[in-house]
Design brief:
single chain; 320 residues; alpha/beta; 2 domains; 8-stranded parallel beta sheet; 7-stranded mixed beta sheet; 13 helices; 15 strands; globular
Length: 320
């Protein structure tokens, strides 16, 4: 079994290559070539444990990950865990991967699907709300999808801003990085906004004049009590793309607009409809995309990382 640490996963796959891997996962899901059971959640006062199994044509796997929001104030990763990848035919474990590093990159790639299919091709800047690990990887992957010349961001503190800039610069050398004092300042300078926070209430102002004609990706919210994007975004967009059906039951960014009648069940649609070309979209008007992730993305990403690591001799082989 090959053990892959967070450092092992860096540079194994380019952002564009990982996005292509997740597009293949979406197509496999559409074709019924993969099985993704509902993930289980165990929540307590300080955090959430998620268990996510999936089965594909050659492999199966399970990701165990915990989300502890208070870790940000402790200087610790908000997300921790392990991904176990196994051979479908023999059941033999193939790899053990750092789940936080896997999640960071594959979630960056999932967000990039929204950038690729829901924004104009000439989009030249991106605004990031939430300068944590995930915010940085969202910026990195957005830069791989569009000719981004400037990354704007809102950070909680100078220290988090410095970590954000260091992470982005390591992957996208020479990128112009601009801190903004708040969301309004950011909105004034970009048309693409990605929210990567654990906020319970919207991180953007409820001001249609600032939001109209822009493109929004919500990555951070993962519970019914969380809503990153304001109602005005959903009113302007009139529809919402999601990356997993679980979003309809799990997150406030879907549940609340539906409960208020801002969105209808029919106006909430699967990102695969855009990838396949089954559904048209006008990228010159307001668009909105909500990602919650699903185990199939982790499985496809883990398999791709494992195969790349095996070819290049990256990681450590162990016997259990």
């Amino acid at each position: 079994m090959r053990v892959l640490t967070d450092l092992d996963l860096l540079g194994l796959l380019s952002p564009a290559a990982l996005v292509a891997v997740l597009e293949s996962a979406v197509r496999a899901h559409d074709a019924g070539r993969a099985v993704t059971p509902a993930r289980t959640q165990l929540a307590w006062e300080d955090g959430t444990l998620l268990s996510m199994p999936a089965l594909a044509e050659a492999v199966f796997g399970t990701k165990l990950v915990c989300v502890i929001p208070a870790n940000a104030a402790r200087g610790l990763p908000v997300t921790n865990g392990l991904m176990v990848l196994s051979d479908r035919h023999t059941g033999a474990p193939l790899a053990l991967l750092n789940a936080a590093a896997l999640t960071a990159q594959r979630t960056g790639a999932i967000g990039a699907l929204g950038v690729k299919y829901m924004t104009p091709a000439d989009t030249a800047s991106v605004g990031i709300i939430g300068a944590g690990v995930q915010g940085a990887w969202q910026a990195i992957f957005a830069c791989a999808m569009r000719p981004i010349r400037e990354v704007l961001y809102v950070a909680r503190s100078p220290a988090s801003g410095a970590r954000f800039e260091a992470t982005v610069r390591a992957q996208v050398p020479g990128m112009r990085l601009t801190p903004c004092r708040d969301a309004r300042a950011l909105l004034a300078r970009t048309t693409l906004v990605i929210a990567a926070t654990t906020a319970a209430s919207p991180v953007l102002p409820e001001e249609p004049e600032l939001l109209a004609g822009k493109h929004f990706v919500s990555i951070g919210s993962f519970k019914p009590a969380m809503q990153e994007l304001p109602d005005a975004v959903y009113k302007l967009a009139g529809e919402l793309a999601i990356d997993a059906e679980a979003a309809r039951q799990e997150v406030g960014d879907v549940l609340r607009p539906l409960a208020k009648g801002i969105l209808t069940p029919e106006s909430v649609y699967w990102i695969g409809d855009l990838i396949s070309g089954r559904r048209p979209i006008d990228v010159n008007r307001t668009t909105a995309y909500k990602s919650v992730g699903m185990a199939l993305y982790d499985l496809y990403a883990a398999q791709a990382f494992y195969e790349a690591a095996t070819r290049r001799g990256v990681g450590q082989e162990i016997s259990l």
